[in-house]
Amino acid sequence: MSAIDIRWARETDIAAIVAMLADDPLGQAREDAGLPLSQAYLDAFAAIDGDPNQFLAVMTDGDDVIGTLQITFIAGLSLRGGRRGLIEAVRVAAWRRGEGLGQRLFEWAIDKCRERGCRVVQLTTNKSRTDAHRFYERLGFKASHIGYKLEL
Amino acid sequence: MSAIDIRWARETDIAAIVAMLADDPLGQAREDAGLPLSQAYLDAFAAIDGDPNQFLAVMTDGDDVIGTLQITFIAGLSLRGGRRGLIEAVRVAAWRRGEGLGQRLFEWAIDKCRERGCRVVQLTTNKSRTDAHRFYERLGFKASHIGYKLEL
């Protein structure tokens, strides 16, 4: 019997989430998963947790945090006032890949977007993440856009 | 002397913003700028206006609304807890293009993202908007990502 669960993240999950963000070809240059965690991570969690339109999710197996993603609900005039669900910071723990957990996590997230009345779920993924491209296309996402970033 | 100004949108700007969203090869199929405006647009404006992390901007010239964009500030654990500024729904009125107004509006928006401590400004643009691609690249944005959308 699987003990896998998906729920909103708590402060005690932050270190495990940052470890997953860092364990990645792009993330390893950007993150610092060393303990004690940088206060910036704790402050960012508090900001997410205090924002009624932001939700950080974790997938757990017993006491292990094995996946994460973040959903931001965005009201907008375009799409006839349609709400969007933006998904960021998606990870499945390296030792648990290939089990379909990412798909399960994403289907849960898409359901949350439906529950909030979103017209669109959107995300961007680095051009170098070719496995991710196939994953999103299998889930029905269309690669209709270019994602631009400007570092400040 | 130019009377051009950029400010946060008010309820009285909604019809002009929706008219710009609709006056566009992609927008004309998606929006309904007919008056009286659909209640969904008014509800979406109220949701944006009530969200401390969402800002809808207009560029005005006297009484005319001649440009718009929306900024969403997103806290996140990734990027060492770095905040992102997401820009959506960018338009300059058709009769005022070619005057550099889009650049002026964008530089203002990027300044707002800096003031809020964003590490990154990000946006997606449809692959068919080739003029927009050149515009963002001139502003220093890097086309590093693919933008995926799933319609619900």
From TrEMBL, chains A, B:
Which residue ranges does the record assign to the N-acetyltransferase domain?
A: 4-152
CDD domains hit by this protein: NAT_SF (cd04301)
Which keywords describe this protein according to UniProt? Answer: Acyltransferase, Transferase
Instruction: Show the stretches that span the lipid bilayer.
Output: none
Instruction: Enumerate the SUPFAM superfamilies for this protein.
Output: Acyl-CoA N-acyltransferases (Nat)
Cite the Gene3D superfamilies for this sequence: 3.40.630.30
Q: Which domain of life is it from?
A: Bacteria
* Matches recorded under PROSITE patterns: GNAT (PS51186)
Q: Which Pfam families match?
A: Acetyltransf_1 (PF00583)
Q: Any keyword Acyltransferase?
A: yes
This one is known as GNAT family N-acetyltransferase
Q: From which source organism is this entry?
A: Mesorhizobium vachelliae
